Amino acid sequence: MSASSSDPRLPAAYLMPGSSSFSEFLALQAPDLLPSRRAAPTSHAGDLAPHGTTIVAATFPGGVLMAGDRRATMGNIIAQRDIQKVFPADEYSAVGIAGSAGLAVEMVRLFQTELEHYEKIEGTTLSMDGKANRLAALIRANLAMAMQGLAVVPLFAGYDSDAEQGRIFSYDVTGGRYEETAFHSVGSGSLFARGSLKKLYRDDFTEVECATAVVQALYDAADDDSATGGPDITRRIFPVVHVITETGGRRMAETEVAAIADAVISSRMSRPDGPAAALT
Amino acid sequence: MSMPFYVSPEQLMKDRADFARKGIARGRSVVAVQYADGILFVSENPSQALHKVSEIYDRVAFAAVGRYNEFENLRIAGVRLADMRGYAYDRRDVTGRGLANAYAQTLGTIFSSGGEKPYEVEIFVAEVGDLAEQDQIFRLTYDGQVADEHRYAVMGGATEVVAKHLSEHYVEGASLEDAVRLAVSALGQTPGENGAGTTERVIATAHLEVAVLDRTRTQPRKFVRLVGQRLDALLGERGPVTPDPPAEATPKQEPAPDSPADPTDQVSGQVPPLENPVTGEPPVAPPIAPSGAPPAPRPEPTDPVQPPTGPEPT
């Protein structure tokens, strides 16, 4: 920002024809603002900052939804009870973050700006695969931090208007990008959430049924993973559920999620392990 | 060596202004109209891909007339500036005023520096607020002047007839439907025969570029293009489309003959500004590079009027 803060004129570089990628422009103009340009710590730094935990995504006919619990932990401490870990990336996609919360939130902000910048400059949106690849590039740049325990592992989901269906992508710390079918989960409670969804998922879900299934999965994750927060009925804090369909994305209203969570909790009063699946 | 040709600073600025103004007047008008829920932009633009009206940021939009490559450059710079500021600070810290200021400084510097051709553009930077009183429209001219516009604004093309129609029919707090109809009928105004009154053309829907900054949108990004069926529904039944008169297709020829006595006369549009009209030698940096021009020095021409040497602005 140094050039623009001292001189009111548009800096020459802004008027140069060039890339439509915001992160590339940032790397040339204000590299200190890039999350990946931080000096990597020399020793393990994983316990210094809060960690986000479990994110779940599942597709249903005509869309996809993503949900995240609300807990951030720092070692044995609950750092925050109502953190938001699922963000809209643009109108038709959402990104959920597990791992080092501070780095992840910054990466999401850069990713959101990246997609919007491309859309405004080019006059068209990136393809679903294009978006997924841009996110992979941002994660790859964070590898040095990941080696010191500050990993960011997002889950990316969106509605692909070409394929006319919801799609889910998972990542590893090296920037590897993997497309998932039907449902996926990341974070510390992901094993339990995925096991739960395996038994609950059907491919003919309605939007509300799909939301109920992911809230059940997050409940199961919280049941067995101390770092995942369950529904907080005394404070009325419930998971963030982001739904994306052909008409765009929206965060499911607090009252809608509360109704689903209340139904899940009341059914667990009689059977704490949740709904039983048929044996055969 | 020929003697350096003296041009007074007043004349230099006037020539540059004439040059820019002429380029801008050749295009077609863009209007911005304040309505109940925000700001509406309408322009006559046969191209579906090369936009005159665009989104800059959540609440800020950009509209321009003149040379496409020049205002596209400014638009991209504006998007970069806004995204950079929004990323470094916060989304709310990106304002139309800040952007208008950056454009004004840039255009002003380019206009007054002898080394560069002045930009042949005129720009609106508009910002929609939470309330109608907070809506802002800034008009920026080729020389970096900024004006704060209210109710409606027109730039490019036949501004007088369009502005006259708007001033006669504009109503505060109109609905989107009324505002679109008003703006489209204003753009369709053409001076009648013998300068008596005006007739109204019906512009094809496909040739209209319509966009709004709508404060009632729930998303943070308030800019929406109105196209296809939604635009047809807003416009209603308008009768058959008036074919473009042939005069519209080609830029109007300037009527007045050039005065050979005045070497700086630009009226005929035959001499690119800043070119030495006697020797035909370009100044330090030519405003329009004559393609394949013979290297200086050239023999003194008998007539100061040179044949056109540069491409016409679009």
UniProtKB/TrEMBL annotation, chain A:
Keyword Lyase: no
Organism: Nocardioides bigeumensis
Subunit structure: The 20S proteasome core is composed of 14 alpha and 14 beta subunits that assemble into four stacked heptameric rings, resulting in a barrel-shaped structure. The two inner rings, each composed of seven catalytic beta subunits, are sandwiched by two outer rings, each composed of seven alpha subunits. The catalytic chamber with the active sites is on the inside of the barrel. Has a gated structure, the ends of the cylinder being occluded by the N-termini of the alpha-subunits. Is capped by the proteasome-associated ATPase, ARC.
Source organism, top-level taxon: Bacteria
Known regulation of activity: The formation of the proteasomal ATPase ARC-20S proteasome complex, likely via the docking of the C-termini of ARC into the intersubunit pockets in the alpha-rings, may trigger opening of the gate for substrate entry. Interconversion between the open-gate and close-gate conformations leads to a dynamic regulation of the 20S proteasome proteolysis activity.
Enzyme class of the recorded protein, top EC level: hydrolase
Pathway field: Protein degradation; proteasomal Pup-dependent pathway
Name by which UniProt lists this protein: Proteasome subunit beta
Propeptide: 1-52
Cellular location(s): Cytoplasm
Role according to the record: Component of the proteasome core, a large protease complex with broad specificity involved in protein degradation.
Active site: 53 (nucleophile)
TrEMBL record, chain B:
Protein name: Proteasome subunit alpha
One cellular-component annotation, GO: proteasome complex
Region annotation Disordered: where it falls in the sequence: 235-314
UniProt record similarity statement: Belongs to the peptidase T1A family.
Regulation: The formation of the proteasomal ATPase ARC-20S proteasome complex, likely via the docking of the C-termini of ARC into the intersubunit pockets in the alpha-rings, may trigger opening of the gate for substrate entry. Interconversion between the open-gate and close-gate conformations leads to a dynamic regulation of the 20S proteasome proteolysis activity.
Subcellular location: Cytoplasm
Superkingdom of origin organism: Bacteria
Gene3D superfamilies: Glutamine Phosphoribosylpyrophosphate, subunit 1, domain 1 (3.60.20.10)
Subunit structure of this chain's protein: The 20S proteasome core is composed of 14 alpha and 14 beta subunits that assemble into four stacked heptameric rings, resulting in a barrel-shaped structure. The two inner rings, each composed of seven catalytic beta subunits, are sandwiched by two outer rings, each composed of seven alpha subunits. The catalytic chamber with the active sites is on the inside of the barrel. Has a gated structure, the ends of the cylinder being occluded by the N-termini of the alpha-subunits. Is capped by the proteasome-associated ATPase, ARC.
UniProt keyword list: Cytoplasm, Proteasome
Pathway(s): Protein degradation; proteasomal Pup-dependent pathway
Entry function: Component of the proteasome core, a large protease complex with broad specificity involved in protein degradation.
Biased composition (Pro residues): 283-314
Matching NCBIfam families: 20S_bact_alpha (TIGR03691)
InterPro entries: Ntn_hydrolases_N, Proteasome_alpha-type, Proteasome_asu_bac, Proteasome_sua/b
